[in-house]
Structures are given as C-alpha cells and as structure tokens.
Amino acid sequence: MKSPIKIVWRKEMKDALRDKRSVMAAMSYAFFGPLLMAVAFYVLISQLTDTSDVKIDIEGGEYAPAFVQHLQSRGVVQRDEPWPAGRQPITLEIAGDWDENIATAQPAKVTLTADFSSQKQRTDIRRVESAVEAYSTQLTYIRLQMRGIDPRITQGIDLVKHDTATKGSKAAILMGSVLIFILLSVFFSGMNVAIDISAGERERNSLELLLSQPLTTSQLVWGKSLAASAFAMFGGMLSAILIPIIFKLLPLHEIGMSISLGWPMVLLIILLLVPLALLATALQLFVSFRAKSFKEAQTYISLLLMAPMLVVFGVEFARVKNQLLYYLPLTGQHQALLDIIKGEPLQWMAMLVSAIATFLVAVLLLKLISRMLSSEKVVFGL
Amino acid sequence: MIEVKSLQKSFGKVTALDGLTFSAPEGQITGLLGPNGAGKTTCLRTIYGLLKADSGEALIDGVDANKDPLTVRTKIGIFPDKFGLYERLTAREQITYFATLHGLEGKAAAQAVAEVIDRLDMNAIADRRATGFSQGQRMKVALAQAIVHRPQHLILDEPSRGLDVMSTRILRDLLRELRNQGTSILFSSHVMQEVAALCDQVVVIAAGKVAAQGTPDELCQQTGETALEEAFVKIIGTDEGIAA
Q1: Which tens digits make up the pLDDT trace of B63-120?
Q2: Is residue B176 situated within a structural domain?
Q3: What b/e string do you get for A42-63 counting C-beta neighbours within 10 Å, with b at 16 or more?
Q4: Domain residues for B167?
Q5: Chain B residues closer than 8 Å to A4 by CB
Q6: Which of A157, A167, A212, B44 is the most buried (most CB within 10 A)?
Q7: For the CA atoms of B165, B166, B171, B173, what is the dihedral angle to 10 degrees?
Q8: What is the pLDDT of residue B244?
Q9: Can you give the CATH number for the domain in which B219 is found?
Q10: Start-to-end C-alpha separation, chain A
C-alpha cells in the first residue's frame, strides 16, 4: 500500500502548483530579492566610481579667479542648469574681501552651504571640501615659504594609511547582506502554500472530513509539510543560484571587490538550506493550523517572519561573534554561509550539528502539530 | 453495525450528549431526528472519533473509534456536517484522493472512481475543477468521496441540506440501493419528510438523550398520532427547531 504521506504530498503539490498565487509568491521573492540587491549595488558602484564634474553654485567667483580655476582643475565647476527637484543646492560663496585677506595673509572666508546629511550628495560635498582644502594647503605652503620657513613644519605627524582589507573581505560585507536574502527566501517562498494547506483547509471546511480519514495526524502533517517545504526549497534554490550569477554581471572589480562562488559552493548552500526549509514550514504550519482563516493566518505568519529576520539582521549588524552561533538552527546556516562567501575554512562539524539541530526542532514542531490536530479543542475551536 | 452505548459528552457546562444509546444495524437506514442543538452532529463526530466521549462508547463492528480510530475509519464512509471541496482539483481528482487514502491504488482506484462517477451521473462534471460547482454538484462530489471505497457503514450529517428536488432524489435512491446491498446507514436530519420517506428506523434525540425509537409507524402508534410530524412534536414536547 502507498504511504499516506506520499498520497497527501502528491495531492498538496498538485493543488499548490495550480495556485498561481502560491507559485508567484515562491518565485517572486527568490527572484526579485537578488535582483533588487543587484540594482542597489549597481547604483552604489556607479556613485562610488563617478568621475564626472561636480556642478555646484559658485558665488563671488569674480573675486578669486585663480581659486575658481583651481576648483575647475579638481572637477568642481559652476552649475548652469537648475537643481533637480528634491535636491538641495550646494553653494560655495566666496567673500568680497578675498583679495584683501590674501594680500594680508589672513584666512579668506569661503562658505559652503549644503545638506550635509544627504546620502546622495555626500560624495559631491566631500569632493568640494577636498578641493578647497587642497587650495588652502597650497596657500599655506606659499605663505610659509615666502617667510623663509620650511612648510613641512606644519606637519606634526605623517600618517601613512595601509589598507589591509583584501578584495574578498570587502566583498564579504556586501555579500553578508545578500546572504540574508538567501536565508529568508526559504521562509518566504513556502509561506503561501503553508497557509493554504492548513488554515485554508479549515476555511474551506474540508478539515473535518480529512481528519476523519484512515491516516494518522502525523502522516497528514508530514505529507503537508513536505509539500510546503518543497516550495520553500524551490525559492531557496532559485535565489542561491541567481545570486552568484548576478554578481558576475555587476562591475564589482571597479570598487576593488572580487567574489567568486563556484558551483560546488552553491550546491553546499542549497544543501544547508534543506533542514532550514523544513523548519520554516513547521513553524508556519504550527501557527497557521491554529488560525481560522487565511487572513488570520497571514497576520500571524507575517509577525512570525519578523523572528528570523531579527535574528539574521541582528547577528549581521551587531557583528555578534560566538562559537555557539555555529551550532544553532538558522544562525548556524547563516555563519556557514558567511564562511563560504568569505572563502574561510569551513567548519564541517558545526555545519552538521546545526543541520541536525534544525532538523530536530522541525520534527519536534511537526510532532506538536500532529498532537494539536488530534485535539478536539484545536480542531473545532472549542 | 453501529452501536452507541450511553455516550456522555459535555463542552464546558453544556451537556451535549447525556447517556445516548442506540444502534444502526446492517441493511437498514437509521435516521437520527432531532431539533437543532440536540446533539446529532456531536454524536456522529464521536462515532468517527473526532470527539472523545466523556464516558460510554461508540462502536463500529465492535471497534471503538477512540481506541482504534484508523480501523474504524477504514470501515466507514463519511458525509460530514461541512464538506468543502478543493477548488483547484477536478471532481475526479478529489474522489481519487479519498479513494487512495482508503488504500485503493492504481487501476483499482481509477475503476472505483469511474464507477461512482457513473452511479452518481456526474460524468459531465467529473473533469472540471470544483470552482463554480453548484450546491448539488458539490453534494455529489462529497457523496462520491464517502462511498468510493464501498464502506460497510455510511454516516451522513444532514445530507439533504440545500439540495434541489433532483439531487434529493438521487441521494435517496442511492441510500436505498446501498441499504439493499447490506450497508448500515446512519444519517441525521431535522427534516421530517425525508426521515419519513427514507428511514427503516427513527431515533428521536432531544437534549442529548433518546426520546423515542422505532419505525415511523411505530412512533405514530406510540403517540396516537397519524402524522410523523405530530408524533415528533408530542415526543419532543415542542415544535421548535423542526422543519416540516
């Protein structure tokens, strides 16, 4: 006789694959997530490597033609066209007493007016500042030399910067945020199916009959959760495969980064996601089998999704470092993925332990759900 | 044989079943008649093991659903209180799903499904998805799900709700045919005509107890009334919650 788990799984897969909403949900997050990241990085890279002139308003340029020419040579020029809507003008105002101050070796006043909190204009402002500072240094040198003093006297310390960041480690910071997409895609992709096969079953009034069939609740729950996990895995696989491809297309070398993720590593990432997909599904089923309708389940699950997001973002941004993280569900996969990206030696043992831990938690949750479905209180909402 | 022995069940302070005892033998249609809230659905759910009785037992061929639910469920066909269909599956797929859950496989399953589709005259809708099915069509699918594995016992909870005349006739013919094949059929209803037209035996339930039991004729005789409806009102003591 065929296993009831397989019968339920096949029926749920057939049902879910015909549901355009579920398929779209599984696809879209896995697909658009990496794509969104790609666009964001593309913009970031082009901003960082932008060498076109910075066009600003220069007022009082007629008082200091030599200064204006210096600015021009550094790529800071007078703006002719109006500022685009929503962008604060950057204005450099040269005081009328420029000549007098230069002649008497006083500080000449130049006012820079701009929105210093603006992310978009940060590089522009920075370039204006450094152009002005360079001119100021030149002036100082000339003034000192004219008085017969070695200009080096103004330099107390000569700070030499050695950037030890390798191309790989710079990339890791970038990839860290991308990893979050891979991890979360497992949680997002199976969500719709998970709701449909649990709360949906109750909403369309088919739960009672299904529970009265000759199969145990744990067979039912396993069949259903394997179907939803299949969708979760599909999403995880899609984003794991897409992300290295997208990064190959981005001009990362222009900002001094190199990311190479071979297919064996992609395969390893996919394997790491398998127990996580089961855990994600188990969590979602646990919540949405209690809900009375699709809507209610969606509300609960969107709250539930905050949990993995908080954990992953928390670890990522707080830069928590603890060996324990390698062994726990979710954080274990996160750390392993980070190591893979950074090209650091992999902790196979820790990977295995976290995979088993993840799997065990999922099994435990599924057991709980099976017991829940044997309880008349939960089934009939008494 | 379906046997119910002094079932007790309460939800909080509400007593739903209060020492209910009756039996539904093979080759008979037994009607559970009672006003709304009398405990009909609770009784049926206890028989197929979704609810646990506080005391007493419900047996199918001597097996208690609370102790061995899987054995009980292979022996019965259920037409539940609420029957939702899977909107994205065709009628044939839904029926096949339940057939396979009952252990039918491959060709045997396909044949059983084809037979039941023929019997219920639903070839026209068999390969359409359930979205847009009428109430009568939905009932047929639910009925087909209940009988596709040829159960020895059939339990139906208010099967004629919302059905038109034609669908009701199909249902009645089918139940009679199954009875003649030796199936024991237990169905609940609050519709007098249906019970009078169909049942070999009527069990009148009120407030979780058996108020009277017998053939429709016997019930009339017991109460000295000529119509079952009057007899029923006399037994219950009120005509509340009953449809003629």
Answers
A1: 998 889 899 999 999 998 888 899 999 999 999 999 999 999 989 999 999 999 999 8
A2: yes
A3: eeebeeeeeeeebbbebebbeb
A4: 2-83+152-236
A5: 101
A6: B44
A7: 110
A8: 47
A9: 3.40.50.300
A10: 36
Q: Which chain A residue is nearest to residue B79, measuring alpha carbons?
A: A209
Which one-letter DSSP state was computed for residue A154? G
Write down the pTM of the prediction.
Answer: 0.80
Domain membership of residue B114 (yes or no) is no
Residue of A nearest to B49 (CA): A212
In B, minimum Cα distance to A204 occurs at B84
Instruction: Decide if B138 is inside a domain.
Output: no
Residue A113, phi then psi, degrees to nearest 5: -110, 125
- pLDDT of B34 > 50? The answer is yes
Residue B185 has pLDDT above 80, yes or no: yes
- Distance to chain A for B22, nearest Cα, Å: 22
Tell me how close the Cα of A212 comes to any Cα of chain B, in angstroms: 7
Tokens (6 digits) for A344: 């650091």
CA distance to A180, A253, B186, per residue, from A34 (Å): 10, 19, 58
- Domain boundary assignment for chain A: 4-45+165-379, 52-154
Structure confidence at residue A354 (pLDDT): 94
Residue B115 placed within a domain: no
Closest CA to B228 of B192, B202, B194: B192
Q: In B, which residues are within 8 Å of A371 by CB distance?
A: none
Q: What is the dihedral sign for C-alpha A163, A165, A166, A168?
A: negative
* Binary contact (B78, A211; C-beta < 8 A): no
Interface test with B, best of A202, A213, A378 (most B CBs within 10 A): A213
Number of domains in chain B: 1
Q: What is the mean pLDDT of chain B?
A: 88
Task: Quote the minimal CA–CA distance from A228 to chain B in Å.
Answer: 17
**Are A116 and A99 within 8 A, CB to CB?**
no
- Residue A168: is its pLDDT beyond 80? no
